[in-house]
Write a structure and sequence with these properties.
- By secondary structure, the protein is mainly alpha-helical.
- Among the domains are: about 100 residues, no CATH class; about 70 residues, no CATH class; about 90 residues, no CATH class.
- The protein has 21 helices and 4 strands.
- The chain has a two-stranded antiparallel ribbon with strand order 1-4. Strands 2-3 form a two-stranded antiparallel sheet.
- A hairpin with a 5-residue loop joins strand 2 and strand 3.
- Helix 13 runs parallel beside helix 15.
- It is elongated.
């Protein structure tokens, strides 16, 4: 591989060419040592010395290249890949993944494919990524017509490459016989073009699945009660992609028992947040223990508040509330109103605004509590404090470092003046 790159760099083409492969081929052929008629082409050594494979990789790959009698065609293929801009490591990975790529005809197959993909508007670097991600599909001339269909489906070349990275095999599926029937099934469910693109990116294997499998997915999503044509239906399909009807029933039953929901409540929760089905049982058990046992939230509230089930623990864990230093004293607000203050972020301060706070007696909610920020942190345990004492209504905002504010109570000097939530 080093010999190849040295030759290319020291003998650049005299003028730019649309397809530099023939020139590179001539340079490489001139630089390559001739194989004498009586000698045998050592494929394994070639894979190690020229392609950069490890000895173990070369031993495995050489079994698929035993018919090669000379390095002529492999050299031409390596020149083609170098012309695309693939690094030595990329070439080694490609050859290890698909050794037969070295047998592809450059002038007969690879160069026409390059011309076709360029005609679709793909840049040379994007074409190189397609070759790296799906080498078997790339050396088939049907890849041009396939990408011509997939590009508008994914809405952009970047999205297509992301989908290809997740599942490379859809590129080898027949668009007419396999992909189009699946897309038509999705359209019949009221899924729009933009949502189909997002679904293809999230579940790229859906494109190459048998239509019967797609119909099972649609039936499972329908059982969740999510209306077809709604924006949530796409998420419902993502949630059930790997679940059979039996596994779906078992998962729903587990959630019902774990969160102490009635049949109606588990239905409400799944219609609002179907992606709960993608979480492990251990994760959901942990969320239930935290939200119900530690935070004291009611199961019915969680069923109607999907963010509490899917991400509440995550963004509560970013709020640092220490019993000896910080009291979140929201006066007469209930636990549910306190929870409604929390808005998630990517770290750093949050703006907290009350949502229909319930104020009792003569105590008014301090205006400064309508916009607070809290320190981003990840403590192992959280404590939420609330108080109904009048003296706790007077709060002071202290800077906690980094310009992040926290609410501290000036009037509560003893533990008896504060009411802790159950630990």
């Amino acid at each position: 591989m080093l010999r190849l790159r040295t030759c290319i760099l020291t003998h650049p083409p005299s003028s730019p060419a649309t397809h530099p492969v023939p020139c590179l081929h001539r340079l490489l052929s001139a630089a390559a040592p001739a194989v004498s008629p009586g000698s045998r082409f050592a494929v394994e050594d070639y894979l190690v010395d020229t392609c950069g494979l490890t000895r173990a990789q070369a031993l495995k790959a050489s079994t698929k290249l035993s018919h090669l009698k000379s390095p002529t065609n492999p050299d031409a293929v390596l020149a083609f890949l170098a012309g695309l801009g693939l690094s030595s490591a990329d070439v080694a990975a490609l050859v290890a993944r698909d050794p037969k790529f070295l047998c592809a005809g450059v002038e007969r197959t690879l160069s026409p494919i390059l011309a076709g993909l360029t005609g679709l508007g793909l840049s040379r670097s994007e074409i190189a990524r397609v070759a790296s991600l799906a080498p078997r599909s790339f050396r088939s001339r049907s890849v041009v017509s396939g990408l011509e269909y997939y590009l508008p489906l994914f809405s952009s070349s970047e999205s297509l490459l992301r989908g290809l990275k997740k599942y490379k095999y859809f590129l080898s599926s027949d668009p007419e016989r396999v992909v189009k029937p699946n897309i038509e099934l999705l359209r019949e469910c009221g899924i729009g073009t933009s949502d189909i693109a997002k679904l293809c990116l999230a579940v790229p294997w859906l494109l190459s699945a048998k239509p019967e499998r797609v119909q099972v997915m649609l039936a499972c999503a329908k059982r969740l009660g999510v209306p077809r044509g709604s924006g949530m239906f796409r998420h419902a399909l993502k949630a059930v992609e790997s679940l059979s009807e039996e596994k779906l029933a078992a998962k729903v039953e587990y959630l019902r028992n774990t969160f102490r929901w009635s049949d109606a409540e588990v239905g409400i929760a799944l219609r609002k947040a179907p992606l709960m089905l993608t979480k492990s049982n251990q994760t959901m058990q942990s969320k239930s223990e935290f939200l119900i046992s530690e935070m004291g939230l009611e199961p019915a509230y969680l069923a109607h508040c999907p963010k509490a089930n899917s991400s509440m623990k995550g963004y509560l864990a970013q709020i640092k509330v220490l019993s000896d230093e910080i009291t979140l004293a929201c006066a007469p607000l209930s636990n549910h109103e306190i929870i409604s203050y929390v808005r998630s972020g990517n770290g750093g301060p949050y703006d907290i605004k009350p949502r229909s706070p319930v104020v009792t007696a003569a105590t008014e909610l301090p205006a400064r509590l309508t916009k607070l920020s809290f320190t981003a942190a990840s403590p192992e345990k959280l404590r939420y404090f609330a108080s109904h004492e009048d003296e706790l209504a007077k709060l002071k905002l202290n800077e906690m470092g980094g310009g992040v504010a926290a609410a501290t109570c000036q009037g509560a000097s003893s533990g008896e003046e504060r009411r802790k939530q159950p630990a």
